[in-house]
Amino acid sequence: xxxxxxxxxxxxxxxxxxxRSNVIDQKANSCPMAIRLAWHASGTFxxxxxxGGSNGATMRFAPxxxxxxxxxxxxxxxxxxxxxxxxxxxxxxxxxxxxxxxAVEFCGGPKIDFNFGRTDAADNSSCPxxxxxxxxxxxxxxxxxxxxxxxxxxxxxxxxxxxxHTLGRCHKTRSGFDGPWTQDPLNFDNTYFTNLMNMEWTExxxxxxxxxxxPSGTLMMLPTDIALKTDPIFKPxxxxxxxxxxxxxxxxxxxxxxxxALGCPDxxxxxxxxxxxxSDTKSREMREHCMHGSIEHAQALVAGGADVNSLEANSGxxxxxxxxxxxxxxxxxxxxxxxxxxxxxxxxxDTALHDAxxxxxxxCAKQLVAAGADKNATNKKGETAAAVGESxxxxxxxxxxxx
Length: 403
Fold this sequence. Notes:
Layout: H1 9-23, H2 31-42, H3 73-79, H4 81-86, H5 92-106, H6 140-151, H7 155-162, E1 169-170, E2 179-180, H8 191-198, E3 202-203, E4 212-213, E5 220-221, H9 223-230, H10 234-243, H11 245-260, H12 278-292, H13 295-303, H14 319-326, H15 329-337, H16 352-358, H17 362-370, H18 385-391, H19 395-400
């Protein structure tokens, strides 16, 4: 497998697609919990002790996974397990934080600057002590102790990050608190702030911890939420976000990106770009030109050092796969002449011949067969190229191609 270029937008999009298919499906939309997992994995950072944070994915171990603040998050870690299986080269730490960042976008919120680069700890020796996450039953002083003294955020960032409560709800069986902050807990907007600042909140009389309810009794706020409305410094910032959603989005995006990268390597910091070698970059560009049929550009890149047999990160697909898939016979012929391996199988076990047969690309299939492509090779579903083509209605074309 070729070296993974984590800086590739294509690569990030591939991981994101896998995350989305697991976080949002017909069974559930776990975006709020994905954000909570990323938040809680990151919010243990202590700038004085210089430990904690998302790097290491230490919530896989006790004592961190036994912290009461993390109750229920094992569900989201399990939901994201298929992403790790699909992309074994990506750390759990990167998967959890990317899932949280993308969940914000999936729900209509702002784009969060994200870079790969976190690693997974081998054991629990670097687990932070329990008790570093915010206690929702406290007030403004506690918020500043956790966010400012411990993690290094200012007052504006504290209020912005609190806006994550626009998603999800509390569950009595986990946090002890109960209820949603907003009328649409799956929509990321500034409703948390408009509700907080414009509604009347009274203490709920019930058998649980202290929390507040709106006049209808259907929405709730925590003591730490009410602190944003009563503290003289927090209050005007919260009111600003209630009045200006765009400003909230901008400030939240920057603060959340900072949170996810606390204590992480330089390459994982917002704005950082993981460097690729020149040959990696040229090979990636060459594969993309082959996908689009731009033969002159592809040839120039190979002449300049691109590897014609290079594989795409994770998918294992070659330039020949891409050309055959899209029916670029001129590219297929050139690549064969350049001595590319015609029988490389990608992540699904498909060869370039499978891709050509799938769409009935007769010219491509003929060239591949003539170059020695194995007509009897089967993919992971046990299908030959001819069988794939038949299932897609291209039996006649593929028979003409010699399959």
